[in-house]
Amino acid sequence: MGIAGSDVAKDASDIVLSDDNFASILNAVEEGRRMAENIQKFVLHLLAGNISQALFLLIGLAFKDQNGFSVFPLSPVEVLWVIMITSSFPAMGLGVEKGAPDLMERSPVDPKAGVFTWEVIIDMLAYGTLLGIICVVAFVGLIYGDGNGQLGENCNSKYTDACHYVFRARSTCFIIMTWCLLVLAWEVIDMRRSVFAMHPETDTPYTQVFKDLWSNQFLFWSVILGFFTAIPLIYIPVINRKVFLQGPISWEWGVCVAGLVVFVLGAEAWKWAKRVYFRKKDERPHNPEDDLEKNSPFAKYASFSRQNTMENQVLKMT
After folding, report:
1. pLDDT grade, residue 266 (50/70/90)?
2. In the 8-state DSSP scheme, what is residue 250?
3. Residue 314: which H helix or E strand, with range?
4. Alpha-carbon distance 175 to 143, whole Å?
5. What pLDDT, on a 0 to 100 scale, did the predictor assign at position 13?
6. Nearest Cα to 166, choosing from 99, 98, 249?
7. Residue range 17-35: mean pLDDT, rounded
8. Which of 250, 286, 298, 314 shows its CA 20 to 30 Å from the CA of 3?
9. How far is CA 119 from CA 40, 54, 116, 143, 195, in A?
10. Would you state the pLDDT for residue 11?
11. What is the mean pLDDT of residues 269-275?
């Protein structure tokens, strides 16, 4: 105790309660769990975006123009925009996210596990691969479907009439990449529950999703503004073709919306599969009393567990 305890006791203790209130320990544990989870969400969002871009750009090396040079499916400035503008602000918003409703009901996490747990690593690969594949399919479909495979000449440095389809395909993939990464920030608010049902016990299931998204206004406005700031970059003269090496699009907006819908459905299907897996894992038979003792930081001091009692009885009988 910080108030009633002696100086010797304070020096020898691991924790000092400055207000002599045991509830402070509970609050500290809850805040620590919230911060640890938000760091995982932050890292997951950023690295999933990096994986998707890396996968997309590496596969894009296979596309050769008339001179035999690779055609970049995203220009360098587009990549920088996605990394610095699109992903940064939503990631910061995830850092101030509130704790999950069931945060204190979960089992303690091994402090040695760190940020990169198996769940975070697999989620990172799953979301990044999904988005990368969607962008590859969109780029290939536009180039070889609408453009008849015409990749132009020197489209990585300047605009010519031969680069018309490449520039339009870049704009489409840029919008898909931007929109999907922005929505991913909402998806990783809860790493297992659906973004449409983060509070399943609510009395207003049809409007709860809007309340959940609005509760973190920094994240909300980061996503909304990110959606709309990417659009002018496609149409403003000089900026689009000279800086971003992309061109205006028209009917391709349908491809952008379709790519976003596929990504959201894929992310929700992945989280559903995770819920099924962890639900079956939690249904394995176990002794609740043993779990309580195992998850307690004072388990080594416990002496009245059922197992110890049974062992003492066996010793007495023998």
Report:
1. very high
2. S
3. helix 306-317
4. 16
5. 66
6. 249
7. 75
8. 298
9. 10, 21, 8, 36, 18
10. 63
11. 95
Q: Name which of 220, 221, 253 is nearest 234 in CA terms.
A: 253
Contact 186, 213 (CB under 8 A): yes
Residues 180/133, Cβ–Cβ less than 8 Å: no
Pair 38, 218: CB distance under 8 Å: no
CA distance 228 to 249: 15
- State in Å, rounded, how far the first CA of the chain is from the last one: 45
Closest among 164, 312, 187 to 247, alpha carbons compared:
164
Residue closest to 297 by CA, chosen among 14, 3, 11: 14
How far is the C-alpha of 53 from the C-alpha of 47, rounded, in Å?
10
How many C-beta atoms surround the C-beta of residue 52 within 10 A? 27
Cα–Cα dist 265/142, whole Å: 22
Show the beta-strand stretches assigned E in 96-227: none
Q: How confident is the model at residue 222 (pLDDT cuts 50, 70, 90)?
A: very high
Using left for φ > 0, alpha for ψ between -120 and 50, and beta otherwise, residue 183 falls in: alpha
| Model pLDDT for residues 55-67, shown as the tens digit of each residue | 999 998 899 988 8
